[in-house]
Write a structure and sequence with these properties.
Elements lengths: L21 H44 L8 H25 L5 H5 L5 H39 L12 H23 L4 H27 L16 H39 L1
Helix pairs in contact: 1-2, 1-4, 2-4, 2-5, 4-5, 4-7, 5-6, 5-7
Length: about 270
């Protein structure tokens, strides 16, 4: 008895994980935002309370130091903490929470490519959290300054501007933190923030040791090691080195660092999906 042949459709599956899809990326990003809204709100609430307490504690200092040309950049300084600390928590826990043993298989089997999953994480914790922080902090600082102005009768702090150079520098630094803690969350699924900080500190100490050793070997003749026969570095050399470490090296690090960490994080996620 001949069995009827069954023909399978050869049409490409629209959910084929081998092809990148912007539509699938958008759906995945919306899903993650909905699932992550609670951690976002909790983090925002905790840091908002810290902002209120810190603002109140700085009012007295603002009254003492206030002048027509006030240089009290409380908002710019606190915003960097607001963005950095909150972003480190959100970034570190983003993939770590997804990959815990009890629900890791669900996330790894989602009909999306590794690249789509990783880009979604970067968009939400990087650009998304930055915009969220800018809007929330702009509202908090504006309300706080308005209330202070109503009761005290003058502006105590330089108003916060999301378009200022200080805010832009905070964003540049945060991109490095975002890339670092995303990678940390892919490596450490439990207590990712604390373990990433500890690991980062260890790497930093090792880097500074190697940098110091390199400086000693390369520029030993310009440095006074306590021997009067060895000349001290001249002012031009000192200035050049300060400009290099404060400017050139920092710019290079803030450009290359996040890219390197994001690429490493992507391959780490791909490895866990294999």
């Amino acid at each position: 008895m001949n069995m009827p042949s069954v023909k399978f459709s050869q049409k490409p599956n629209p959910m084929n994980k081998q092809s990148f899809s912007f539509n699938r990326l958008w759906l995945l990003t919306k899903r993650e935002i909905i699932l992550k809204r609670k951690p976002f709100l909790i983090t925002a609430a905790v840091i908002s309370i810290a902002f209120i307490l810190s603002y109140l504690s700085n009012i007295n200092e603002g009254l003492i130091n206030n002048s027509e040309n006030s240089t009290n950049y409380f908002h710019q300084t606190f915003f960097q903490l607001f963005l950095g600390i909150g972003g480190a928590i959100v970034s570190g826990k983003f993939f770590a929470d997804q990959l815990l043993k009890d629900k890791g298989h669900v996330y790894l089997l989602l009909p999306a490519t590794t690249l789509e999953k990783y880009i979604s994480g970067v968009l939400i914790t990087g650009i998304g959290y930055t915009l969220f922080s800018l809007i929330l902090y702009a509202i908090l600082s504006t309300v706080a300054d308005a209330i202070t102005l109503a009761f005290v009768g003058k502006q105590l702090f330089v108003p916060f501007s999301p378009f200022s150079r200080l805010a832009w520098n905070a964003f540049r630094i945060y991109l490095s933190l975002n890339a670092l803690f995303l990678l940390g969350g892919l490596i450490y699924h439990k207590n990712p923030v604390i373990k990433t900080i500890a690991s980062g500190f260890g790497v930093f100490v090792g880097f500074m040791f190697l940098m110091g050793l390199t400086m000693k070997i390369v520029f030993w003749e310009y440095i006074d090691w306590g021997n009067a026969d060895i000349p001290e570095p001249n002012e031009a050399f000192k200035q050049r080195m300060e400009d290099f470490f404060d400017g050139d090296l920092a710019d290079i690090g803030l450009l290359i660092g996040p890219v390197f960490l994001w690429i490493t994080g992507f391959f780490r996620l791909k490895e866990q999906e294999a």
